[in-house]
User: Fold this.
Amino acid sequence: MWLKDDFKRYHYLVVLHTICTIAFVVRFIVLCTDLSSAKSDSIAFPVIILLLELGSSFITLIGNCIYIFLRYLGPILFESDHEKVGCCSQLFAWNLSTLTCFRCECYREHPQLVLVTRLSILILFEAMRFIAFILACVCANRYGPIGLGYSILAAFSFVPAVILLVVEYLHHHRLWFHYRPDTSSEEKPQYINEHKRFLPIAMTNDQQTSHWQNSRCDKGKDCLSRNLYHVIIYHSGNTRNPPEQTKDNQIVVGFHQTSHAAACSIAKTQLKPSSNGWIGPGIYFATSLNHTEFKANQFGAYICAKVDLGKTKRITHPKDWSSGDQCDTVYYEHPHGADEFCVQNERQIRSWIIVIDQDPNVRFLQEKNNKPLPSGKYVEDRLEDIVYQGCWL
Ligand SMILES: [Zn+2]
Assistant:
């Protein structure tokens, strides 16, 4: 993929934003000179152009300044996500600086739209600047050399602005469409329909809150959303999921941990039931991402799946299970909340997203006999989460 290197892309973004800022300051000075020399009967044009410039480039400039400020001083100012400086929380400040403060309720269920919002706002700003440019061209003859100067400056500054939009889009594209841990062959592998996508673990709740395991969703443990994106990104911590009582044919979200190599192979085939297990043969799921740590034999990739429980037998002790049970799922209600369930048939698994631990403990994985990817590495495509700080949610 073009500009796959995260650091390089981030470097380009910084350079392009700086060029656009300098271009804006120059245009602003030219406009102010124009305004001061304009006659009262022809002042309307530069006033409208100035307002359009302030409504687009100036807002981006302010956003970028807050972003740089937060990136370096945010951790000193804000001790936790909910702590406020004045009336401004850290989360709000991040949203403001990344131009993603326009929030709809649907973003809860579709977090991938957050970056689309940022891109749309930037495109809208460019459209406003284009209108300003057209106005300047129309009235350039009225103001002589200065008006013409603004038009030429505006035309040239569209070049870095358009490249900037392309690089911004690549950021979104890389995160949601292109990221995969196995990149030894450049060709994209064929995944089965149930596999939605790979996501880096840095996008989950745990990595974004300074308070470990705080849910990013306001509804916390009462949240009933079964959208995979929502559950992974906002409730990846110790939030019990599914709820206290399961019903037959209920759709729940289950978590299963396996190795990087196995996850890449599952994305192309399917999860296969084991021939035995402590609550019967089948595919085992924990009810939160963290609980898979105590139940897995292989580590590094988390399969978060939407599972149809079908006919369910709920047990409170593993010995309550017997091979004669006529059910699709055995649900074990653990005394300390670490519930797990075993589904008999892979067809009960409707869809999944695979979350990849980007920074695995290689020694631990080797000790546990986890097979790496064919290239010998555990993660071939490392997504540098440090450059995405504050950008995605
Ligand atoms: Zn929620």
